[in-house]
Design brief:
two-stranded antiparallel sheet, about 40% helix
Length: about 240
C-alpha cells in the first residue's frame, strides 16, 4: 500500500503500519516526493502532476514545488525513478485530497503544492484561485487513467480529508471558505464514483468525522482526536483489509 495526499493520509499510513500491513515508503527519507512531502500534496493538480511526472516523464519547471520548510524542491531524475519504482510496486493506492483552493503559476498555469513563501512571492508570477468541480473531476479521472495504463491491477481508494482550512486568501471567512473548498472536492469525487471505474473506491473519512462525532477535533479544532481516528480506521479495515 502507498498512501499520500493531505496530512490525514499519515494517519492512515501509521495505522496500517502499526497493524502489520506493508506500507511502501514507510521510511520518510525515501527519495520520493510523494513520501517525503506527501502530506503537502493536498490538491488534485499536484497529485496528478506527480503521477504524470513519474509515469510519463512530463517535463516540469523548477521553482514550482515547495517543501514543508518552504525550501524549493527540484524535479530530479533520480527522485522520479524512485517514485515510479514505488508506484509500480503498489497494489493499493490511497489518495487523500484536501484543498480546492490553490496558488498557481501565472505563466504555466500549474498549481503549487503549498502557499508560496513570502520571500519568493512575485505578483507578476504567482496567483491564487478557487478551482472548479470540473477541473478537479478531470484531474481525478486522469489519475485513474494513469493507473489503468501503468498499474492496472492496483486498487485506488480515494478519501476526502476532514482537516479544515487554517486560513484562506479569499475575501470571505475561513469557515465558509472551508465548506466551499470541501464541497467542490466531494462533488468531484462523487462524479468520479458515478463512472463506476473498476478497482476505484471512496472511503468516507470526511463524513465520519463531520457527521458521526459531536466533538471530533483536538483543541486546535483541526486535527481529529486519536480515539476517533482509531475507530475510523477500524471501519476502513473492515471494508478493505483482510484478517482484521
Amino acid at each position: 500500500m502507498t498512501a499520500f495526499g493531505s496530512c490525514f493520509a499519515q494517519n492512515i499510513s501509521k495505522w496500517l503500519l502499526d497493524n502489520g500491513y506493508n506500507v511502501l515508503g514507510k521510511k520518510l527519507n525515501l527519495n520520493s516526493h510523494i513520501i517525503r512531502f506527501g502530506e503537502g500534496l493536498v490538491n488534485t493538480f499536484a497529485i496528478r502532476e506527480q503521477l504524470e511526472w513519474a509515469f510519463e516523464n512530463r517535463s516540469l519547471e523548477e521553482g514550482l514545488w515547495f517543501g514543508e520548510n518552504k525550501e524549493i524542491v527540484l524535479p530530479d531524475d533520480d527522485v522520479r525513478d524512485a517514485t515510479k519504482t514505488l508506484l509500480m510496486k503498489t497494489e493499493t493506492l490511497i489518495i487523500t485530497v484536501g484543498l480546492s483552493e490553490v496558488w498557481f503559476d501565472k505563466v504555466s498555469g500549474r498549481a503549487f503544492w503549498r502557499t508560496v513563501p513570502a520571500e519568493n512571492f512575485d505578483n507578476e508570477r504567482h496567483g491564487f484561485r478557487l478551482t472548479t468541480v470540473e477541473e478537479n473531476r478531470e484531474n481525478l479521472e486522469k489519475i485513474v487513467e494513469l493507473r489503468d495504463r501503468y498499474i492496472p491491477d492496483c486498487n485506488i481508494i480515494f478519501t476526502l480529508s476532514p482537516i479544515p482550512l487554517m486560513a484562506t486568501f479569499r475575501d470571505i471567512n475561513c469557515i465558509s471558505a472551508n465548506t466551499v473548498s470541501k464541497s467542490i472536492l466531494r462533488i468531484a469525487l462523487d462524479d468520479l464514483m458515478g463512472e463506476k471505474h473498476d478497482r476505484v473506491y471512496y472511503f468516507p473519512s470526511y463524513e465520519l468525522v463531520k457527521e458521526v462525532y459531536p466533538d471530533p477535533f483536538d483543541d486546535d479544532n483541526r486535527h481529529p482526536k486519536k480515539p476517533y481516528i482509531q475507530e475510523i480506521m477500524q471501519l476502513f479495515a473492515r471494508a478493505y483489509c483482510e484478517d482484521t
